[in-house]
Write a structure and sequence with these properties.
The chain is of the alpha+beta class. It folds into two domains: about 5-40 and about 130-165; about 40-120, no CATH class. Helix content is about 40%, strand content about 30%. The chain has helices at about 5-40, 100-105, 135-160; strands at about 40-60, 65-80, 85-90, 115-120, 125-130. Helix 1 packs antiparallel against helix 3.
């Protein structure tokens, strides 16, 4: 593990890392909210709704091998926009929680209509409105962790200012 002995470098590292993490989370939240507010709503049609699974193999830090079953909701839909018909796909994130992913599949059964938001600048880009969640657990944790690291960087910067310079 790399140790940063110089308090100025440690402060700079924490500040940059905190800003990067918080900025990334903020950009995700902004992009999702922007889509919800500015993209146009149309009625789409769910063409398929499935729960897929796969085995995720990994090795932990103690070199023990593990297999975890991962689940993914896979929702395909069509929607009209600007006189054409387009196809969209939802839900690229996987989870080890089967019930969580099954709930998404149950929410969008094949054959039903769904509200779709469409990018007016690029009608081929769309999202299921109800599946668009700017404040999801990932973005909240990422933003909170980024802020924590940023605060630690400020504290370290303050400590660096108050330490006497060594010759």
């Amino acid at each position: 593990m790399i140790e940063l002995q110089n308090p100025w470098l440690r402060a700079l590292f924490l500040l940059v890392l905190g800003l990067a993490l918080f900025g990334f989370a903020a950009s995700i939240i902004y992009t999702e909210y922007s889509a919800l507010l500015t993209w146009k709503e149309v009625t789409g049609h769910v063409t398929s709704s499935n729960l897929t699974s796969y085995i995720h193999h990994y090795v932990d830090e103690d070199h023990h091998e593990h297999n975890t079953t991962m689940y993914r909701a896979s929702i395909d839909y069509t929607y009209p926009s600007d006189g054409g018909s387009y196809a969209g796909h939802c839900c690229p994130l996987s989870s080890s929680n089967r019930n969580e992913q099954q709930a998404v599949v149950d929410k969008y059964p094949a054959g039903n209509d769904a509200v779709v938001i469409v990018n007016p600048a690029n009608p081929a880009e769309s999202k299921l409105k109800e599946a668009t969640q700017p404040l999801n657990p990932f973005t909240i944790v990422l933003a909170a962790f980024g802020l924590l690291v940023l605060v630690l960087g400020v504290v370290e910067l303050f400590r660096a200012f108050t330490r006497p310079l060594s010759p």
